[in-house]
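Why show two proteins at once? Because comparison is the fastest way to build intuition. When a single record is shown, students tend to memorize it. When two are placed side by side, the eye starts asking what differs. So, the first record is below.
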Amino acid sequence: MIKRGRLLNRPPKSLEEIYFSEIRPQLYENHAHHDQYGVRKGTTLAEHLDSACQFILTVSHIAQVPEDKRPLLLAATAVHDLNKLDSQGRNVKTLARDKDFLKEELKKAFVIGFVATDDDLELVRKLIERHSGHNVSDGARFLPEDPNIERWAAMLTAADLFDLGIPDAQRFRKIETELTVAFSRKCNLFRVRLSEDKGYITSLLLGACEEVLQKYGFHPIAIFPDSELFEGSNLPNVDLTKEIAAVWQSKIDQVFGNNIEKLVRPTKDGIKVTYQAIQQNVDEVLVNIQALLERKKAGYKSDKIVKDVSKWGDNAGEDAIKKAAELGLLPVSSAEEFAISEGLKAAYLSYREAGLTPKEAWDKIAHHTGISEHQRLALEPFNGQYGRPLFAAKAAINGIEGINEALKESFKLRNNSTENSEEIEVSEEMILAVNRIVNFPFANQLIGINELDAYVEANPRQRCSLGATSSEIDELISANMPPGTKVQAFSNRLPGGISAEPKRQADSIAALAYQLMTVGANFPKVSKQEPLYLHLALPKGSAPELLRIWRELLQQLAAINTEGGTVTVDQLQLYRNHQLEFKANKVVGAALPKRPDFVHTSVIIPLVWGDINASLALLKSLRLGLEISLSLDIGFPFTLSSNMEVDLFDDVYGRVEGIPAALQPLLGNGQYYQSQDAEKILERLRCLGELAISVASIQKSDDCLYDLSRTCDRPIELYFVLLRWILREQDEPNLSVIWSRICQPLNTLMESFMPNDNSLLTKYLKEAAQIAAEANLKGSSFKRTAQTEPFTAFITAVKNQKPYLDLEVMFAALTEQYYIRLDRINREYHVGVKKLEQVKRYYQVLRKLYEEVYSARPEKLLSDQKTLEAAYLFFLEEARTKLKNKSEDDSDETNTTV
């Protein structure tokens, strides 16, 4: 089992934070491999205890249990299945009354700190003994006791039933019965289910559902990847769809309104300000306009301005130009004046949005900017939007300050003109979308037939490029669609077709979902790239408090980049120490959500890795996703995909879409049914990361990681790739030191790929390396070529093999030649018969390798020459390390004996 990391590193403040940061990880470390049976088959004891603890935290909060008693309920829940914790098979009642055993289990679960007194321990005992139908069977039933104990025991019983493996209808009835006792009122449970997940827009919809239902007295009690569970006294008798749609619409409007830089747009007709921007923050709008004017000033081109002046001057006539010049209305001639003219144009457009005529708009602009009445009249012949700003810039003596005053007045007029209008009704499209995406237990319209009709009757040229074909289809340019969206109709490629960019058809809600993503995620401020999307869902039955903690964590991580861009992980810490340490980056990393309400049952995190190939981006994204997903304190089901929309999370723990064939030996088929399957893939990626950082520089580690990953279809070739990278980075590497760094991850990786490695290839190579290490069969130096000298002699002999000589002669000659070579190297010491026997045994092993693995076919062996030499070199280092360790152990034993 690999060591899983943690995400929550800050000091806990509330009981819930203490649970998720300290207690929950301990439950998984203690019981993650303790399988259950019967109705809970398929889950572990850790998952059951975790589910019950989260449920008790939520229910005790709703029931307003005193804060000094809630920790005791949590402590009892963390160990409530005492019979499953005992190795002797004793029952719950016996174990609960064994104080030493109970204290020991509370200590193991990290909850002993909550049990301060004997009275606390007695309360924990009573709750444990009475859960799951256990009756009061001692004399305490005849003594007065706190009447709340019955309510609290009912909460623990409900928590124990919460993850029972029976149909929801039966399970909910049992839980409702217990919660009716716990809350001292009628209790009903119902689920709000999702039929599809479209990312941020779906999270806003769930937030709207929660807001409306809480107004009617319902509390969220548990969150699932595809739904949310609520409890309340009575189900509402009215259809809340329209009310939810209205709240949903307002949340969407707030998102776009809070992104003012997206709503103050420079266009070819001037700077335009949408109504949502001035609704939010007028000062921020003015700051954005000022920034755009500075950009206009920097982009000033005199030749283009001369053409515009000539065009609009000719339209006004020579007399108008002459009269304007007499009054000081000269055309723009500098970058500063051009910026002022663009500001005048922006003010004019804003006044026009407020409903003013061109004359009324310019009267107000003249008043604020200092243009005299005579000058104002002289400007009349010029075009109001394009001509007058070019000739009035020099006369606007109040400059930018005057323009700001005009803009402020226009914004106020626009607000006033809207305040008196009647409230805008929620569109039918939004109501239909709520009905389509969310399933409520109360009445709603059956719209499936409408969806089918829209699909059948749609014009083939209007089939959707994004989303489902429906009655509401938008035509959008590529900038408003996800990268790589295909075009369905190419009207610009047909005879007589338009010359503009082809439009893409999109279901309006799907298009809005993508636009919310572009506005709501902290994308890097560079050209558009195709991201990978990491979809993380809260685990089944998560407490609503976990959602708050998760939202706060994402906000803290996003705040690392003060400029509002991506955050990336420290690659050295990730590869070397398996730790997630985030830092700001302008180009690559995770585009975390800007707002907490973009996170609900799940969250989409776009991952951008810059100019690298798709396979490497997949590897980096999956490594980051698995480190987050398998954290001990939260633990998320995940999907990694190039699509923003994916299927809802089902019983599969993790899914990776689009794995290329070259990476399938490493990553499998992309379906990980349990967290243990995902752990196996994470262990492989960790080993590859360690190897990459050990043999390559940090700048080249990704390239090395990619090379190693592609080699996993034949793991023996990993040795050759590693050696190639070592020699690329160092001319004369110290292989002994390098082996000490890579042996553990490399052996772990080989064990993962070949858990029962009985292949003759590795067996004979390792046997030959062991003989070479024991007999010191090598050249006259410590260089790499000298270390592999006897093996290289074998390869050379095979390469020069004559067809008329059999293998007996070839290997006899090889043995004799290398024996003579050793004798020549060691002239001072005669090598003797023992060395000859060792050389003979060495080449006998290689002969078996040649005959049994390669069928004595030279071309097959020579095609693997580099791989075999690299593997032999590493096996030789491994054998020497074992001999050294054995020698040190023998020396220690001798010293101890003496």
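Second record. Ask yourself what differs from the first in the token line.
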Amino acid sequence: MRPLRTAVAGLVAAGLLLAAPAAPARAADPYTFTNTVNPILGDGSYYSADLAPLVADGQLYVYTGHDEAGPAVNDFVMNEWGAFRTSDVAEGEWTHFPSLMRPEQVFTWATPGRAYAGQVVRGPDGRYYWYVPVSERDSTAANTFAIGVAVSGTPTGPWTDHIGGPLISQRTPTANTIENIDPTILVEGQRVFVYWGTFGQLRMLEFQADMKTPVGTQRAVTGLTGFFEASWLFKRGDTYYLAYAGNNAGGCTPAHYHACIAYATATAPTGPWTYRGTILSPVSSTTSHPGIVEFNGRWYLAYHTADAVGGGHFRRSVAIDRVEWDDTQSPPRIRPVVPTPPKQADRTPRANIAQGATVTVSNEPVPTQYWVKALNDEIVRANPLPPDMWGTWTGGNPPQQWVQYTWDQPMRITGSQIDFWNDQPQGTGVGVAAPARWKIQYWNGQWTDVPGAGGYPTGTQGFQDTTFDPVTTTQVRAVFDASTNGSTYSAVAVEEWKILAAQPATITPPPITVEVGENELPGSVPVTFGSETLQVPVYWDPITADQPGTLSVSGSVLGYAAGRVTAQVTVISPGDTEGDRTPPSVVLTASGSAGAAGWFRSSVRVRASAADDRGGRMRIVTTVDDGTPQTAEPVRSAEVTVTGDGRHTVTATATDRAGNTSPPVSRTVDIDATNPVSSAAVADRKVTVTATDATSGVDRVEYAIGTGPWTVYTGPVSAPDAAQHAVSYRAVDRAGNLETVRTVVIPADLSAPLNGNIGPIATATASYTAGWNSLTALNDDSDPASPSQAQIWGTWSGARPASQWIQYEWSRPVRLTGADIRFWRDVDQGTGNGVAEPSGWILQYWDGTGWQDVTGATGYGTSTTAFNRVTFDPVVTARLRAVISADGNGSTYSAVAVTEWRAFAEEPALTATAQPRCIAGKVYLAVTARNDHTAALDIEVVTAYGKRVFAAVAPGASVYQSFPARAVSVPDGAVTVNGTATTYPAHSCGG
């Protein structure tokens, strides 16, 4: 239920455990190596994380945890702490201490493992103190993490327990309910300040110079925008800085699982803190952890990444880079840190061209646990986390989704490799499953299925290959029909989608001319496929053109797998202009998501490419509409981005080195990047759809009933039978924009008597639903033994109230006699944390004006292993509510969760007739009803001319009522008897 970073053991509080200090722990043998690039140790022989730098004895120590998880393990396996030491970061000579301390060897009260982020500081007495999170062996607290303190006379140990028990836990020195990890410490004279916490909860407490005696009480820290964990406290000049791993601090994280490094400042070590921004973007590992220190007159940021050989989210490695300051501001600001070495384009020849495409998807905005960039990052992990994939799970999943690649220029393609991810099998209609079916389409003025496709496999173990006849296009998409159980749909997730280029026989790049000092080479080369020649992107190695002459350059052509190509480069002098009277020529090309009828469906990049007979660079001036002209020089091309729906005009001129200016060249760009908008109304079990589009106009509306085919909408859509049906619909505009699928439900025809579980035909609502759970799980008529999060309705969040409710509503009043609920839990009662079975619950019904408790209830069980059945006195109502009282520990409450809620109706059979008759020239309606049930029954008769309720009609008895119409004639009509319709014909009493 909770997105936990760690496994948490222990459920109830207990007293402090004191123990004698353990024997000193000794370091494993150190060794020295030289490496001048990040990570510090990146060969995959040892993974290090959760760093903490310290300057001692003129050397820089970087203390770390040791990541020992296997490549397919999604958990932090950390059994010890080590350190790196250097006397000169730039020189890169490091001494590695692989194992300086293990929790169970220093702290007799600790369990092995979970050696998370700690920090070493020098105390006022000159000794070194290592504050580390450990798991208490005998604790019965809800969360057994505590912070211990080890002490040593040297930076590398040996280490002994300084206290004999926890410095901080959920019960000492005062109670708290947070996870007590990630301590950071600042020693200032005789004062010691400790900050710690995670999951958005940060605490601080001052200690005496003995490094263990509290001063005052702990308090929550505020002012840190987006704080998640991994705080780092330090001082520069008169300003205190608190860096931390932030989740969406200033919008820095593309997915919730990512973290950036943000920071805040204060004028005192106790705050208050003011957020100042971010200094490090998310790295290749989902977690991020800062350590900032001054060493040899320079400031450094240590952090960890997944960039080592064989690295991953749980196999991280420490890196270190310079920190620069902006002292013109007050307080001085930390400039954004640029990780080194810089990322370079992969020039390995390969057929895949997806990495050169722009990605768009049907489910924008993408749910924040996923990352759309994962689709074409060419990374597939053995056991991925959500940001390692693109996914669509939201709890209410539509029947179809798609992903699309767009290239700036036409590409010749002939195959696909896709890697699906799932946590549920196909056919469940919940969670994430491989699609029921899918297909690949390309754009040729409209979306068209690729020809000759060799099949679309849906396995979830490795890449699924599809080959097809070669096509040339700027856009390709995969369309996924979601797996379904007939009523609900699973989500779709893709770890990687490769598009394979057709292979030419050979590629011979044309000669290239550059000026002295010019290092930008043409971005594409001509590639011939039979009678068709395309300009395909190429990635050249760097060149040095420092004098006139010739040289060779190699590069990789996007999608060309046979090898690298080589071109001859002529370097000319930029001053060679004598006698030049010929103006350059200019060509405008537009790139974007091409639509139909000449429209673009995205912002458009227009490139002005200039060519001169002398081969030199030029000044290019571009103008969009009536905007300010933009000048670029010396260049061979210039790009402008055109945005906004509507018609735009781009104009460009080029001036060569001799001053010759080309005539203006213009191009019209039509953009409709906005999807059409449709809406639907349901009346009389028919769906009416309307749609609008402000720019190119609506082309058509399509609908599908359940899992049926898409059909062009021509008028109201009727239900095919009396059952409940989901109707999906979408609009398409003339530019080709396809609206995200919307869905409405045609309710079941409830005119007949209802008996048994009618939860599945109700509309469910709730007081709150956690983002990873599903409201539809309440009445999906499924009760799996081991449900996924998508098969549970739950309320886990940071704030958990004492009461929650779930509600069913039907389209007419129904006669209910009972209900049952099966609860779900992941902790025991009494913790006030996690998800526990409730302390109690009640059923209520809506009487037309307010909620009333059902009467005659047989008792409310709270089992999580079986349904808790409740019968009650029959009640006729359109709404039923379960009010659930959360279990607590006296101060906080656990969340509640339900796997299925069933509501039982019992509507006895009736025989009813209605017949118009005449009295004194006027029509009256004669209605007869017989109770065919085995028990007494209230019978309600409703007509257009009045109604009547007959109480406690005996089994087999009949009742009669006449209703005067007070008219000479009446049309065809119907009466309802206990909600069941009975028709009668038109009748006239006229002469």
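One difference worth noting in the second protein: The chain has a mean pLDDT of 92.
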